[in-house]
Amino acid sequence: METYVVRVNGIEYEVEVEKVGGDTRSEVASAVQSGVAKVAEAVKAKAAPSKGGAGKGEPVICGTAGNVWKITAKEGDAVKSGDTILILEAMKMEIPVVAPVDGTVSSIVVSEGEATTAGMTVAYVE
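The chain above was modelled as a monomer; its predicted structure follows.
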């Protein structure tokens, strides 16, 4: 069993990977990716909505703490997975927060200037 530290959305997790069969980098990479996917699902499941409360659809989750610098999408906009919903400012860096799925922005539960925390739900896409 090998232990790796994996960072998902700015949050570090310790992942144990069991070595099965050969000793190739691709097998280790595949095992780590599988672990990362499981951790990402756990993070998504634990994400709490911000003061705006619940929304409908898939939550859009902040990967890091920061301040909402600019909201680039509005409710009712059609988005594709990976499209920017809003931009955070953290340590003088601009960090896009993107749609997790294709769909329509059903609600944005933060406002420009609002502080965010890692794992915080900032919008919903249906």
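Residues 2-46 form one domain.
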